Fold this protein.
Amino acid sequence: MLSLRKLIAGPGSSVLSSLAAIAVGLLAGLAVLFVSDAGQAPRAFGAILTSGVSNLKEFGQVLYYATPIIMTGLSVGFANKTGLFNIGASGQFIVGAFAAVFVGVKGTFLPAGIHWVAGLLAAAVAGALWGAIPGILKALRNVNEVIACIMMNYIGMYLVNYLITKTVFDQLKNQSKRVADAANIPNLGFDAVFRDGTIISSAGGGIVIALALCVVMWAVLDKTTFGYELKACGLGRDAARYAGIGENRSIILSMVIAGALSGVGGALLYLAGSGKAIDVIDVLAAEGFNGIPVALLGLNNPIGILFSGLFVAYLTVGGFNMQLFGFAREIIEIIIATILYFSAFALLVKGALEQLANRRAALPERGPAKEANPSPGAAPDTGEGDES
């Protein structure tokens, strides 16, 4: 039983569960392809598996699509470490994106080397403020953070649409204006590397910032007292309170940091220099919700989230090329959804097995009863009573 407990609780078991979920998701996608068009299914599946590395331009697109979902995945995963489900990453993402675009359009008076930094900081502050509201409601009034975050998603979407039309609106395209060139994050020479002939990918310095923040969040959670307090609060709030850890403070700060990470994700997408603008439409930002499977697949670990974000982006690029064979891009969504469900199922099974192993380990071991050895010189007990 001890070996079973070690196998279940070992660090490799969670990684294996994620890999198994990925395999099941890919098989489900392959099955859908064969049902749709068996003749083109092998070539389309091959495109899913190989398009992301078919050339440097396509790999650059993987980095581009991975950047925002790594940030929203960090946001969801960081909050989960404190026992909170931050489903509000979409609202925090779009509010941060608007703050970055507003600074990028209106802040032309700023020096070139500071303009994009100001946009990032504005996005972080806006996202932090948007994340703080559900955190404060949870900490002070015990309002369920899921309900509060869902409401803040829609409030953020409609507020950003309104603010765009009043400040940085391009009426011809029904979207925000393009940011100034100085507001774009430095390319760091990615355009010279990630290209296919004259076709340049959209990759830029944003992926470097996302990578750096993954390392920072890992260090905060695993190497600092502050991170220990946040995780302790997530594992057991009553025990954390008994140990003197401020429960309300941890909840609020966790949501503030999570909101800032999502907000920065919005800035990294719209200040990437790809010419992307915020469309004024009544649709929640998909990048926020895509952060949920990224965090779950990455086991809420910042380094795991980095790789899971790259994997989901890899599938996204493969989905674009899969359409060349007549298949709908939604098949990629089916694959990602299947991976998400099986990841959650694997974690549930692991938790059940851990509880079973712990209960069995708590039972006393059964064995043959051993008679007590009499002390030297003691007369054997004949079972006869004393005569009166």
